[in-house]
Fold:
Amino acid sequence: MNTIYAAEKCAKLIHSLSKAVKLTWGIKHEAIATIYKGAILPLLTYGAPVWIEAMNFEHNRQKYIRVQRLINIRMAKAFRTTSNETLCMLTGMTPILIKLELKTAHYKIKENLGHHDIEWDCDVEIENWPHPAEVGIIHEVVGNEET
Structure:
C-alpha cells in the first residue's frame, strides 16, 4: 500500500467520523482513541519496515502528521489552530513518526536485522519477575555508619 494512498484513506475515514464528533457533543475521547488505535494506526503503519525510507521526504511526513492531527483534534475536541505537538500531549498519543520508527526497529530486532544497540521494553509475564530481595543488596544506614 502506497503511503499517500494510506494517508488519504485514513483522512477520508476521519472526515466521515467527524460527523459524529463535535466540540460539545458526540463520541467520547475514549471511543475515538479506540478507533484510532484499532483502525487508523494499523492502516498507517502497515508495512512500515518496507517503506520507512519514504518518510525521509518532507511531503510524506507531512501527510502522515496531517492525518494524526485530524484525529487528535477530534479526540481532544480542540480548535484547529492548536499545534500538533500540543495535540499529541493532550491526547496522550505518540507522534506518528516516532510510532513508525518504533515499529520498524521492533521488526528489525525481531528479525535479527540489526539494531541490537536499541533498548527495547517488552512485557514480562508476572511469573518471570525477579523477586525484590534478589534484585539488589539492601544496606542499613545507622547514624553516619553503614552496617
About this structure: The helical segments are 3-17, 29-45, 48-51, 58-76, 84-91, 96-110, 132-135. The two ends are 64 Å apart (CA to CA).
